[in-house]
Design goal:
The complex is a heterodimer of chains A (283) and B (262). The mean pLDDT of chain A is 91. In chain A, 83% of the residues lie in helices and 0% in strands. Chain A folds into 2 domains: 43 residues, no CATH class; 223 residues, no CATH class. In chain A, α3 packs across α8, α6 runs antiparallel to α11 and α8 crosses α10. With 283 residues, chain A is an all-alpha fold. Chain A has 11 helices and no strands. Helix content of chain B is 41%, strand content 23%. In chain B, the strands form 2 sheets. In chain B, strands 6-7-8-3-9-10 form a 6-stranded mixed β-sheet, with helices on both faces. In chain B, strands 2-1-4-5 form a 4-stranded antiparallel β-sheet, with helices on one face. In chain B, β7, α7 and β8 form a beta-alpha-beta unit. The longest helix of chain B has 18 residues. The model of chain B has no long low-confidence stretch (mean pLDDT 89). The chains are: A mainly alpha (283), B alpha/beta (262). Chains A and B meet through α7 of A and α3 and α4 of B.
Chain lengths: 283, 262
């Protein structure tokens, strides 16, 4: 690793004493150290992604493994995602009703719920829930394979571990996130209606008509498909953290935790960027 | 026949009559950080020969084996398998050579989500597309019977003992009929009876398949039983290489110390 700090120190003689004190302080040095470490990690992640892409586009293709992962990541996450969507729908309805009633604008409630869930709440909740369940699962599974030399055994058997292990998981995450988001949206909207209807009689038909007035495919498709980027982040980060693990059981635990933490963080940051892009391209 | 095919045919002929080595390691250097693990190691193994690499724990014996199969890259030096230098090869390129190599890991490294039968079938399912599934299954059963694992086909790796896991690992290593067999501490952690059984199994397999084999071990008794030649690794160098008698007659201090304590 290039020691940026020592090369920086070498040019410090030309600095003002106050500037020198600042650059020599442990706090600043540890910040620089952290930034360098993050950049190294990000660079290694990029190399890993490139290897996975190269392996995924060349035969032989691991279709059986892909279908297994679609089931594991998609079908198995459905109950949790649906439950999270439903809960968020109820909470959103109750909170929004409380706020809107101050302005006498309860009639806007269905539109507010539909708009919030489809544009943002559904995608982000799905992303975070899946990042927790799937991210930790992939991170721990691949980490424990790494520390027991199973990944080396796969490579020694002349099978590309990027093709067999990483590519199917990442592709499954990319394909399943939009479908899971749909499920979360549906449960959120239905339960939002239920919470609304319990406070004030409102048929589902009225709720849907009022809520979806003025919405089009441009409101629905971009936020749903942005979850493919979330899936890429979750799959890529957890496979990367899992396959580079060292250090036995403690290493497996660290891999699982870091998979969830890093993929959640990157997902939230990506969401900020994607929302801006969607607003620009789909006004 | 073009030049590349001609070279391959000549190499195969030379290996069969023992004039060319199947495995040729020249001048290997490998460091991990500031620790120099291999300091110019050179070895040759011909067809049908078993070379035992001995040394103290943590002296780079396993690293040497991992470099031979390409799981680690050396800092410098060459590793030639069937005359081809694998040191600079890409993953898919080296895959072609690995199909002719079998590796037994120290802990077996069986895939814990697959049964014993599925573990041994793994290389066949991925590489022998011309064999039908029933032919592959037949071969798997034959291999498991050969290593003494009859009746355990449906068990999971966590349900069998360490010695049995090594047997299954050996069967898996032999699935593609390799020319090269690499064994990383095959008797480590086994009781003396199980260790002797593994030694007998390795001898039997070698007599049938005539592979070029490197066994890394710290068990001198096992090495004496199965190996044609022994090499002693010390401080990253081969201190001595030869048969057991040559080791016994050696004046080198480390060799005498090693033999005294074995």
């Amino acid at each position: 690793m290039i020691d940026h700090r020592s090369s920086a120190v070498a040019s410090m003689d030309s600095l003002h004493p106050g500037e020198r004190i600042l650059l020599e302080s442990p706090a600043v040095n540890s910040c620089i150290g952290l930034i360098v470490k993050f950049l190294e990690w990000f660079g290694d992640l990029g190399i890993f992604f490139w290897r996975v892409v190269c392996a995924a586009v060349t035969p032989p293709f691991e279709f059986r493994e892909l279908f297994r992962q679609l089931d594991e990541i998609g079908s198995m996450s459905l109950p949790l995602v649906a439950l999270a969507g439903a809960a968020i729908g109820v909470v959103l309805a109750l909170q929004t009703r409380h706020s809107l009633s101050r302005f006498g604008a309860e009639s806007l409630l269905p539109a507010a719920i539909v708009f919030s869930i489809i544009h943002e709440i559904g995608p982000i909740i799905t992303g975070l829930v899946v990042s927790g369940r799937v991210g930790a699962g992939i991170g721990a599974e691949l980490a424990s394979m790494k520390v027991t030399e199973q990944v080396d055994a796969i490579e020694a058997s002349a099978v590309n571990p990027y093709r067999l292990l990483a590519a199917p998981r990442i592709l499954a995450c990319i394909l399943m996130l939009p479908l899971l988001t749909l499920a979360a949206d549906l449960c959120g909207l239905v339960m939002g209606w239920v919470a609304q209807a319990l406070a004030e009689p409102l048929s589902l038909h009225q709720f849907v008509r009022s809520g979806f007035k003025g919405t089009g495919f441009n409101d629905f498709l971009p936020p749903t498909f942005k979850t493919m980027v979330f899936g890429l982040i979750i799959g890529l980060v957890s496979c990367f953290q899992g396959m580079r693990t060292q250090g036995g059981a403690a290493g497996v635990g660290r891999a699982a935790t870091s998979s969830v933490v890093l993929s959640s963080l990157m997902l939230i940051i990506a969401d900020v960027v994607l929302v801006k892009i969607i607003i620009i391209f789909f006004p | 026949m073009n030049t590349i095919e001609q070279i391959a045919v000549e190499q195969t002929k030379a290996e069969k009559d023992g004039s060319a080595p199947v495995i040729a390691v020249e001048g290997l250097h490998k460091s991990f950080g500031s620790q120099k693990v291999l300091n110019g190691v050179s070895l040759r193994v011909t067809r049908g020969e078993t070379l035992a690499v001995l040394g103290r724990s943590g002296t780079g014996k396993s690293v040497l084996l991992r470099i031979v199969i390409g799981l680690e890259k050396p800092d410098s030096g060459s590793v030639r398998i069937h005359g081809q230098d694998i040191a600079g090869m890409a993953l898919d390129e080296i895959g072609e050579i690995r199909k002719k190599m079998g590796f037994l890991f120290q802990q077996g490294a069986l895939y814990d989500s697959l049964t014993v039968e599925q573990n041994v079938a793994f290389p066949l399912r991925h590489h022998k597309k011309t064999m039908s599934k029933s032919e592959q299954d037949e071969r798997v059963r034959a291999l498991l019977v050969e290593v003494g694992m009859e009746g355990h086909f449906e068990k999971m790796p966590s349900d069998i003992s360490g010695g049995m896991q090594k047997r299954v690992g050996l069967a898996r290593a032999l699935a593609l009929e390799p020319d090269v067999l690499l064994l990383d501490e095959p008797t480590a952690g086994l009781d003396p009876i199980s260790a002797a059984e593994i030694d007998e199994l390795v001898l039997k397999l070698q007599a049938e398949h005539h592979m070029a084999s490197i066994v890394v071990t710290h068990d001198l008794h096992s090495a004496k039983t199965i190996a044609d030649r022994l090499a002693l690794l010390n401080d990253g160098n081969i201190a001595i290489e030869g048969n057991f008698q040559e080791l016994q007659e050696s004046d080198i201090e480390f060799v005498r110390e090693f033999l005294r304590h074995s």
